[in-house]
Automatic annotation (TrEMBL):
Bilayer disposition of the protein: Multi-pass membrane protein
Keywords on record: Membrane, Transmembrane, Transmembrane helix
InterPro entries for this protein: Ostalpha/TMEM184C
Transmembrane stretches, start-end: 47-71, 83-102, 114-134, 165-192, 204-225, 237-262, 282-302
Location of this chain's protein in the cell: Membrane
Entry protein name: DUF300-domain-containing protein
Keyword Membrane part of the UniProt annotation: yes
A Pfam match: Solute_trans_a
Gene Ontology cellular component list: membrane
Highest taxon of the lineage: Eukaryota
């Protein structure tokens, strides 16, 4: 979103004083007419807060129903753990959209939270695609082929092309947290300056860094799909990807359009909306209104019905939710690497069970998942 605003400001800025002294953060004109009620006794801000809160609750209920269905039919923990994490992006985005509308003055502190939720979803999606590939007829050969590299101890390292994909996606988790933290700190000490593109302020550097790490993560996920399209297409991977990534993408597009409208004075404070209502509240309000629709789309893209095909749950709902919320497997992927994934998968096949990305023996609530057999081959999720 900052990238869109940055580009729009660069195209539209004509402030001569700012151009002469780029070390001074320009003061934005926040003046406007006196605010009057928008609906009944409610101002626009109160009305938008109530609506965005209602949309957040509705989005949560829709997604929670799908999550409960997965938790009650937890027959494939490896896949369903990742699916639940992806589904949780909707209530995460809806909640923070509501917070930004409600506390619009704190919008700059909260807006980067969306990227952290997206980072978790992208990492979970990577592991979900890996399991789809490893569950196919070719298994690990489909993922690595003959390109794995022998180490001195006789073990194998994953090929460089897959290592790049692996770490390009997973880097987005820590970097999104760094971006969020850096934004909060620089805003607090008044060196962020969202109204300037000058290199003297943190905004431009954070925005460029965010653009780079986000692009790397998205392209890496798409690269894996493109390289194994023949296997992944049957799982409707593209639909699944855009069902959740569309949340952030559409929000960025809308923010870009609104930034242009604000920059050329088409959108100005009115008797209903203050400057902060327009700049911070309006983009998040639109996103909040869209979240119930995204909740329906993502629920249709990740149904629980394929996991009911004659298979019994291997764990209860509480264990399913615990495993999904415990993201230590995503964090440990930095250390374990992709080849460990395959070794776990091979061990799982020998044990006639699914590969344990997290649920190794001794893990709380562990149960042996079902075998990769005909039921998994028939499953088209």
């Amino acid at each position: 979103m900052d990238t869109a605003a940055l580009l729009a400001r660069g195209l539209l800025s004509n402030n001569d004083d700012v151009k002469k002294n780029k070390t001074v953060c320009p003061i934005e004109d926040q003046s406007g007419p006196e605010i009057v009620p928008f609906v009944g006794n409610y101002t626009w801000h109160s009305f938008a807060t109530i609506c965005s809160g209602a949309c957040a609750i509705l989005s949560f209920l829709i997604v929670f129903a799908v999550i409960i269905m997965h938790a009650l039919n937890f027959s494939n923990p490896i896949q369903q753990r990742q699916i639940i994490r992806i589904l949780l992006l909707v209530p995460w985005a809806a909640f923070f959209a509501f917070l930004i509308v409600w506390q619009e003055g704190a919008g700059e502190y909260l807006v980067e939270s969306l990227d952290f939720g997206c980072a978790i979803a992208l990492a979970a999606f990577l592991l979900l695609m890996c399991d789809y590939i490893l569950a196919s007829t070719g298994g690990s050969h489909e993922l690595f082929g003959a390109t794995s590299v022998k180490r001195a101890d006789g073990k194998e390292n994953s090929p460089n092309w897959f290592k790049r994909i692996w770490y390009m996606v997973l880097q987005f988790i820590p970097t999104s947290l760094i971006i969020w933290l850096a934004t909060c700190i620089t805003v607090a000490i008044n060196i962020y300056c969202s109204s300037s593109n000058s290199v003297h302020f943190a905004h431009i550097w954070i925005t460029v860094f965010k653009l780079i790490v986000t692009t790397l993560a998205v392209l890496a996920d798409l690269k894996l799909y493109q390289s194994k399209k023949d296997i992944l297409s049957q799982h409707r991977v593209v639909i699944k990807f855009f069902a959740f990534k569309g949340i952030i993408g559409l929000n960025a597009l809308q923010t870009f359009i609104l930034a242009i409208l604000v920059g050329n004075k088409t959108l100005q404070p009115t008797k209903y909306m203050t400057y902060h209502d327009i700049k911070a509240g309006l983009p998040s309000f639109i996103l909040a209104l869209e979240m119930p629709l995204f909740a329906i789309v993502i629920a249709l893209a990740f149904p629980a019905s394929p996991y009911k095909l004659g298979q019994s749950p291997v764990a209860g709902p509480a264990t399913a939710l615990f495993q999904a919320l415990n993201i230590t497997d995503l964090l440990s992927c930095f250390v374990r690497g992709p080849m460990r994934l395959v070794r776990d998968q091979q061990w799982g096949i020998q044990r006639q069970s699914s590969m344990p990305l997290v649920a190794n023996p001794g893990y709380p609530g562990y149960s042996d998942p079902p075998a990769y057999g005909d039921s998994r081959e028939a499953m088209r999720v």
